[in-house]
Amino acid sequence: MLDPKKFPVIRRWPARHPERIQLYSLNTPNGVKVSIMLEETGLSYELHLVDILNDESRLPEFLALNPNGKIPAIIDPDGPGGEPIGGFESGAILIYLAEKSGQFLAADPAVRLQTLQWVFFQVASIGPMFGQLGYFYKYAGREIEDKRPLQRYAAETQRLLGVLDTRLDGRRWIMGDDFSIADIATLGWVRSLREHYQAGGWPISARSPGFLAGYSGAWRGQLCSGVSTFRGNRDRACCAQ
Ligand SMILES: N[C@@H](CCC(=O)N[C@@H](CS)C(=O)NCC(=O)O)C(=O)O
Whose CA is nearest to atom 2 of ligand 1? Predict the structure, then answer.
């Protein structure tokens, strides 16, 4: 059983299935990573929507799980040694779930390093830069007269898309033939850029036609066709749209 003293979050978001992984999330580019991973691994989970626009992620019950006050976060009732464990930061959660399920992160040390480097590339570069671009292009920051911040993040986004396009050239997935947590980490942000920020008409698309027109062929086709990765996510309101 999950102890509310150890996990106050379950007081605010009660668990109907406490034996399942508890996911606290929303349909954002970071949130969707974990729901896609859970869908793809087949691990059973229970979703709790956290309304970040109304500051639910800053409630004390949520902060007890993630002191940084951001989604996604999880509780695994069957953690190491069979003990419940909580976790936050989407990249760390992806690695934990990959190790728990034995899927989407190779055991071979060289492949593992390369996969993790692309996961960290997403978490450290793509997420923060695309997120700032979103603020200055689509949200409150677009009212700001000084366009230098927008130009700065647009240029960096364009550069990062180029890095990704080059990596995907001739590869089906970021790691080649094998679908991995690097793809799961990245796809929500690229989708968001094109479909949510509606940045498709940008100069970026001239530089990175693959990504913004179709997210590099097979990569995009697989991810967005509903064949595998987005299975169930639309219904669960956990897609990046
Ligand atoms: N580095 C974190 C970023 C998480 C993050 O920025 N989450 C956003 C949604 S995409 C959030 O919760 N924002 C609410 C807020 O900042 O108040 C991760 O990868 O998990």
Answer: 89
Identity (one letter) of the amino acid at 15? A
* β-bridge pairing 21-25 and 73-76: antiparallel
Asked if pLDDT for residue 229 goes beyond 50, the answer is: no
Fold classification of 109-224 is: Glutathione S-transferase Yfyf (Class Pi); Chain A, domain 2 (1.20.1050)
* Residue 88 Cα to ligand 1 middle (Å): 10
pTM over 0.85: yes
- Average pLDDT of every residue of the chain: 82
Ligand 1 atom closest to Cα of residue 26: 9
The arrangement of strands across the sheet holding 45-49 comes to 45-49, 21-25, 73-76, 85-88
Same fold flag, 9-101 and 109-224: no
User: By C-alpha distance, which of 187, 229, 233, 199 is closest to 29?
Assistant: 187
* Distance between CA atoms of residues 6 and 64, nearest Å: 9
113-150 pLDDT tens trace: 999 999 999 999 999 999 998 899 888 998 999 999 98
